[in-house]
Amino acid sequence: xxxxxxLRSVPSFxxxxxxxxxxxxxxxxxxxxxxxxxxxxxxxxxxALYVVASGQVKVMLIAEDGREVVLSLVREGDFxxxxxxxxxxxxxxxxxxxEDTKLLVLHRDEFRRTIKQLPEMSFGxxxxxxxxxxxxxxxxxxxxxxxxxxxxxxxxxxxxxRHADGLIRDLPTHQxxxxxxxxxxxTVSRTISAMxxxxxxxxxxxxxxxLNRADLESAAGQMLRRRVKTPYNGNRPVTPRATPAPGS
Length: 248
Known about the structure:
By secondary structure, the chain is of the alpha+beta class. It has helices spanning about 5-10, 20-25, 110-115, 120-145, 150-160, 175-180, 185-195, 215-220, 220-230, and strands at about 30-35, 40, 50-55, 55-60, 70-75, 80, 95, 100-105, 165-170, 200-205, 205-210. The chain has 2 domains: about 5-120, Jelly Rolls, CATH 2.60.120; about 145-230, Winged helix-like DNA-binding domain superfamily/Winged helix DNA-binding domain (Arc Repressor Mutant, subunit A, Orthogonal Bundle), CATH 1.10.10. Helix content is about 40%, strand content about 20%. Helix 5 packs parallel to helix 9.
């Protein structure tokens, strides 16, 4: 995929005109990182937005005692570091390449020189930031309100929503899932094995498929279930009104 095509696939840039993409494309520099290479450390000075052209990275926090919390996985066509375009605060989290990865880098100075020419890009970034905030709200809610089974269920539903055919081909390892949901790897392994035994999910060489959506949605809870069914796209989801019971 060319640099132009990659930028066109990024949701925040997808509404731009072809002429706008043509202006934006030369501003990005390409960088390649091998698997397990640290792309940036938490508290590094922030100065750039990164778009994943190929590969996958994890955004994570590392405690002083070595514990790791994975905040998000960023795959091809997605981006991270967008707050660096808007303020001068240091990066809040570390980013590590999970596989050989190619990134497109847009530095803050280039962005600020160009933003007046491309006002739609600023709206795209604002929509993305709103989506990230909403996603963070639901993740925090899940960590506080759901047990391990519910958190794994919600993660599986969220991963499935990212695939048009419903087949999760790139499910994270049990260790990474544990770091994403605040559980131990052993707990994640037991939970997934139990889901397979109950025929709630199916795991094959091709990937993971949800077989009993109702069970997983029940475990994930109503609030989080609504989030998975209606992924945030910059518009506030409308909650349908309850239908009154007969005779009420």
